[in-house]
Amino acid sequence: QAVLTQPSSLSASPGASASLTCTLRSDINVGTYRIYWYQQKPGSPPQFLLRYKSDSDKQQGSGVPSRFSGFKDVSANAGILVISGLQSEDEADYYCMIWHSSAVVFGGGTKLTVL
Amino acid sequence: QVQMVQSGAEVKKPGSSVKVSCKASGGTLSNYAISWVRQAPGQGLEWMGRIIPRLEIVNYAQTFQGRVTITADKSATTAYMELSSLRSEDTAVYYCARPHYSGSRPEGFDYWGQGTLVTVSS
Q1: Which chain B residues touch A99 with a CB distance below 8 Å?
Q2: Which of A96, B36, B92, B120 pairs as cysteine with A22 (C-beta 3.0–4.6 A)?
Q3: pLDDT class of B22 with cuts at 50, 70, 90
Q4: A90 near A112, Cβ under 8 Å?
Q5: What percentage of chain B carries pLDDT values higher than 70?
Q6: CB-closest option in A48, A105, A108 to B109
Q7: Is the CB of residue A115 less than 8 Å away from at least one CB of chain B?
Q8: What would the pLDDT profile of A102-112 be if each residue is shown by its tens digit?
Q9: What angle (nearest 5°) sits at the alpha carbon of residue B44, between those of residues A2 and A19?
């Protein structure tokens, strides 16, 4: 079982909200991890969006709009990236990341389509 | 403004090695943890390892242990990633990346190089 699992794709309408999930393997507890989120558009390197561990331990990337926010669903053992007020420019791949056992682990990524 | 500038695209034969560089513009990499991340065509991100030049710390992902070497020059303005015993599956864009803050604490990657395409083909 992968350490981080993301749905491969998600579609949402302009103006709506999208929730992108990053589920941790069952033997590791989401509560103890900082979850990092990145956006990647075709032909460009990833861009750091935000980091979320708790409401008291979170950081927004430089210049990242507040409509990008992070949460956790402890019952689902998952990190969540919420994008509100979707815009066409939000169409991209989104990756979650954690540090686990002194190594970086990325989720497989979610392709977000705004239509 | 922080900029990380990588070397240009490479085409390599299977079994050979490739060395990609990552230069910090306007400063040193010395105090920062410089990671290398690769992305095969149409695939996700894969962390390869990192170096913190001033602390002489190097960590490698298990997947690449024994095949990757990450170094920095003495002036610590340039980091390098060398991958050996190349195979077609190593065809990918290779990125260097670093956090905003210096030190060894595990952090995310605020700054990325532009990427270097390495093509492995006979």
Answers
A1: 106
A2: A96
A3: very high
A4: yes
A5: 100
A6: A48
A7: no
A8: 999 999 999 99
A9: 75
Rounded to a whole number of angstroms, the distance from the CA of B105 to the nearest CA of chain A is 10
**Whole-angstrom distance, CA of residue B117 vs CA of residue A113:** 26
Instruction: Report CB contact under 8 Å: B113, A109.
Output: no
Long-range pairs, A67-73, Cβ under 8 A, ≥24: A68/A37, A70/A35, A70/A37, A72/A30, A72/A31, A72/A35, A73/A21, A73/A30
The structure tokens 């922080």 sit at: B2
B66, amino acid identity: G
Q: Where are the alpha helices (DSSP H) in chain B?
A: none
Judge whether residue A42 has pLDDT over 80.
yes
Tokens linked to B118: 């390495």
pLDDT at B2: 82
Q: Do A107 and B112 touch (CB under 8 A)?
A: no
Distance CA B94, CA B70 (A): 13
Q: Cα separation of B33 and B100, whole Å? A: 10
Q: What is the pLDDT of residue B44?
A: 98
List the end-to-end C-alpha distance of chain A, in Å, as a whole number: 32
CB within 8 Å of A64: residues ≥ 6 apart: A48, A49, A50
